[in-house]
Structure formats: structure tokens, C-alpha cells
Design goal:
Helix content: 25-40%
Structural class: alpha/beta
Organism: Kaistella carnis
Protein name: Lipoprotein
Order of helices and strands: HEEHEEEEHEEHEHHEHEEEEEEEEHEH
Radius of gyration: 22 Å
Strand content: 25-35%
CATH topology of the largest domain: TIM Barrel
Length: about 325
Amino acid sequence: MKIFCFIFLFAFLLSCENNQQHPYTFYFWRTHLSLNHEEKAALKNASVTYLYIRFFDIEKVDGKFRPVAVITKDNTFITDKEIVPVIFIKNDVFYNTTSDDLDFLVENISSLIKKKQNEFGFKPSKEIQIDCDWTAGTKKEYFEFLIRLQKRSKKEITCTLRLHQVKNSKLSGIPPVGKVYLMCYSTSSPLENSDRNSILDIPTLKNYLNNIQAYPLKMDVALPIYSWGIVTNHVGKHKLINALSTADLENPNFKKISETEVEIMKDGFYFGNYLNKGFTIKAEEISEEQLKEVKNYLDKKIPGYTIVYYHLDRKFTEHHAL
């Protein structure tokens, strides 16, 4: 009897150990800031006191730096969370960039962030996050930009960290920030022919993160809750339809190919797009089992991380018990 109790207690403790509870919040990635009832409830239930909002993107057009997709807001967007600005910068912005270019970027990004914070009356955070898929060819300029932005803004500068930047850290370098956000998604391109889930393929993720415990910076984790559909035409070209799930594939004009893929049997408008007979649609989404497996894997490698779910949208939060 004592042996049985000991085994039961050990199994219980092991189960608890493998199901750590992590503080969490969300990214908000839509250009127009609005919140419906379900999204307000999901945000209120988030245990972290701040929200990550993409403020704008930076692109280089005809050799000039431009902010694009700058956020707007309506009166439904009400929250008491601290707002962390997230700026997405295309990697090619940092090619052939001079010292004066970096100063220009830093000054104008800082000014536009402050303008938007004041315009919308956001509760400001001490942090600014930069999202850039930097490479070995741009790391010098990008890292210098991060240093200058910190000096100019007097904020804590953090940045995202992609899987290849972990696996190839000797080439990619270590960014000069106090904390990174590990992006545990986009494990492959959705525009290539593959049977894998391009949002999250766990064997691929584990391969990239085999030595993540050796990464020298403090780390939080971004996990996916989004979904999409991959449309393939007659010649093998692909396009994405956002927020599509397997439930959306139930249609009398679709022939089921597999649990996640259908063939269109009749020309027509589907999900806001005109699609032809013979096109296929593959839905990719994230299950609770996938999220649990990733968390259990990371729990053994990264101590005490916070989760930022990508991203806050009723279409996604209603399918996940966060």
C-alpha cells in the first residue's frame, strides 16, 4: 500500500512539474485597433499587465525609409493594460545603411511611437520591442540601431528571436538587448509544397531549439494561436487566406481530400476570394496538444518564461482555453 501511494504521489508531482503555469498576454497585430466583447474578455483574463501592439512597419521604398500600416483606433479599444509598442522592420532596411541613416531611423521611429501613444492616451510601458528577421549580412547595422534606439528613447529595448537565429547564433550574432522573445512558429514557409504544418511543426522546432538553454539572453516565448488557409491553383502557386480553420472547409462545393484539405468543385467566391474549380485549400491551425507539447519541451530548457500569444483576435482566442 505504501509503495502504491509513493508511486501515485511521484506521478502526481511529475504531472505538476510537466504542466507549469506561465503568465501570459497577447500580441495585437491588426492595423485598426478595436476590441469586441470576446476579445475584451480574453484580454482581461490575461495574467500579464501589458499588451504588445504593432504600431507600424518600416520599409525602404526607392531608397527612402517609410512607416507603413500605421495603427488607427476606434472607441471600442479600451484597456487598462500597459501598451508595449512593437515595430516591424523589414530586414532589407538595414542593407547599405549609413550612420546617418541609423540616426534618421532612430529619431523618426521614436517620434512616431510617442505621437501615437499620446494620440491614443495609452498607458506607456518602459519597453519598446523591435521585430526584425535580421541576418548575418545586416546584424552589424541592426545591432547598432538597437543600441542607438535605447539611448534615444531611454526605454528598455527588446527584440524578437527567430528559430534560425538561435540555431545559427554564431553567424546571426547575439543582439545587444536585455531580453528576447523566442518566436515558436513559422517553422517553414506556407508557400512551399509540404505535408508539414508551416505554422508549427514540432520536430522542426525541436531541431532548431536543441541548444536553446545555452542562449545567453533572458527569454520570453511567443506561441501561435492563429490559423490560415493555403490555396493552391492549377499550376502550383499558393496564396494565404487568413483565419481559416478546418471547420470552414465544410462546404457542399468542396470535396474532402484529407482531414485538413479540400478540392473546390465549383467556381465561386469563397472566404472573400474568387476561387476556381480544381483549386485546393489546406487549413493549418494549432491544437491544444501542440501548444502543450511545446510548453513541456521549453519548460525543460528555459526557466520561468512568460508567454505572448500571437495574436489577439476572437477568431483565434475562442478556439483556445488559455
